[in-house]
Amino acid sequence: MHEPEADASIKGWQGFGLIQVFTGHGKGKTTAAIGEMIRAIGACKKVGIVYFDKGGDTHYFERDILRNLGVQMVVTGRDRIDPITGRFDFSIQDIDRAEANRGLLAVQDMFDVPVDLLVMDEINSTVHLGMVSVQDVLSLIERKPSSMELVLTGRNAPQEILERAHLLTEMHLHKHYFYSGVKAREGIDF
């Protein structure tokens, strides 16, 4: 394992305002971001999250708790899980691109509020799947308030986003019970 590179531009930084990325094919990216949110709430900070490509109400049990904690929340995307078969729809449709762009507008709105910490959940995979361009996301990142901490999650983070990150954590998949036929479990996986 190699030592992480130091970033001289943030040496001695105090407070919020950095960019964090949680990516990789392992479980825990959104969970890590929610942990950051809980910690910020505990420090009496204002927190927001924009869920990209995570529509639907029945697969995300953390949302009610986060709302009760005062988290500003915008959910975008369609419900991709068929209620009868339980199968995930991997297709990318015009509605997916429209919803992703609605998410970018919601991020901009939270810049204007502003919140102290903002999570752009699944933005990396949303870019990777072509629902929004990496350039649109980078342009948005450049406009973030300097005192706002920004957390970007999702698989396949583009290199351009990785280069902007001050913290980069990659979740590596070594084992997953899904491959043994264990379906997503309520309260554990959603």
Commentary on this structure:
The protein has 190 residues and is an alpha/beta fold. The protein has one domain (16-171): P-loop containing nucleotide triphosphate hydrolases (Rossmann fold, 3-Layer(aba) Sandwich), CATH 3.40.50.300. 32% of the residues lie in helices and 16% in strands. The chain has helices at residues 29-42, 62-68, 94-112, 123-128, 134-142, 159-164, and strands at residues 19-24, 47-51, 72-75, 117-121, 149-153, 167-171. It has a six-stranded parallel β-sheet with strand order 3-2-4-5-1-6, sandwiched between helices. α2 (62-68) links the parallel β2 and β3. The longest helix is centred in the middle third of the chain and has 19 residues, at 94-112. The protein is globular.
CA radius of gyration is 17 Å
Distance between the termini: 32 Å
Overall average residue pLDDT: 93
CATH-defined architecture: 3-Layer(aba) Sandwich
> Which strands sit side by side, in order, in the main sheet?
3-2-4-5-1-6
Alpha-beta content class: alpha/beta
Structure described in brief:
The chain is an alpha/beta fold.
What tags apply to this protein structure?
single chain, alpha/beta, Rossmann fold, 6-stranded parallel sheet
Could you outline the blueprint of secondary structure elements for this entry?
Blueprint: E1 19-24, H1 29-42, E2 47-51, H2 62-68, E3 72-75, H3 94-112, E4 117-121, H4 123-128, H5 134-142, E5 149-153, H6 159-164, E6 167-171
Parallel strand pairs: 1-5, 1-6, 2-3, 2-4, 4-5
